[in-house]
Design goal:
With 197 residues, this protein is of the alpha+beta class. The chain has 7 helices and 4 strands. The relative contact order is 0.23. It binds flavin mononucleotide (FMN).
């Protein structure tokens, strides 16, 4: 698969087989993340590769508890509102039972933390597609950067004191009929292009 194909056919996967992802493929995906551009070439992304299912289940429960204690206001962003609503009424989903969650932390006081994280996550998702793996950005932990219990637990897992989470990605083999990611080309309804020739 060439680069354009891998980019254009990347779609989010939200249903996974429990199968582990081969070490070699995880390493290739991390290589793609580490080679991503960063503001000022800072290279301060910190990738926490979580494959321990007990840890994933604990994070999911902690996230659900934190969201269920949040109130919704008129300004609450739609996706955050969705997580709060589901956590209160049941049916909250965090990592879709994927075998791997790669959390991307970065320095809290660094102005390009989100941008650098986004470059790395997009590289990982494209690489995953090229390797016949599914992936999906998981933003839940970013909403919970001010929740002491969750931040403390992430510190226990290896996140540095001055770091916070700016995104995460799940990776695994899709539980689809073909076992391959859905690579449907989707007509895109948004985004705007202005040519100034
Ligand atoms: C910043 C960002 C945050 C996202 N957070 C989540 C999330 O928490 N859970 C989820 O299921 N999908 C999440 N997504 C995936 C989007 O819903 C998805 O990319 C979008 O619907 C387009 O579908 P596609 O990825 O299949 O092209 C996120 C995507 C981005 C870029």
């Amino acid at each position: 698969m060439n680069a354009m194909e891998a980019i254009l056919t990347r779609r989010s996967t939200r249903n996974y087989k429990p199968d582990l992802v081969e070490e070699e493929k995880i390493e290739q995906i991390l290589d793609a993340a580490i080679q991503a551009p960063s503001g000022g070439n800072n290279q301060t992304n910190h990738f926490l590769v979580i494959r321990n299912q007990d840890v994933l289940r604990k994070l999911a429960l902690m996230a659900e508890k934190a969201f269920s204690a949040m109130e919704i206001s008129e300004d609450t962003y739609a996706s955050l509102k969705h997580s709060i609503n589901l956590s209160k009424r049941g049916g909250y989903v965090f990592y879709y039972n994927a075998p791997v969650l790669i959390v991307v932390a970065n320095q809290r006081d660094y102005g390009n933390n989100i941008a650098d994280c986004a470059c790395a996550i997009e590289n990982m998702m494209i690489a995953a597609n090229a390797l016949d793996l599914g992936s999906c950005w998981i933003n839940q932990l970013k909403w919970l950067n001010e929740e002491p219990e969750i931040v403390d637990y992430l510190h226990e897992l290896g996140m540095e004191k001055d770091e916070r989470v700016y995104g995460a990605v799940i990776i695994g083999y899709p539980a689809s009929d073909t076992g391959l990611p859905n690579r449907k080309l989707m007509p895109q309804k948004g985004n705007k292009v202005t040519y100034i020739d």
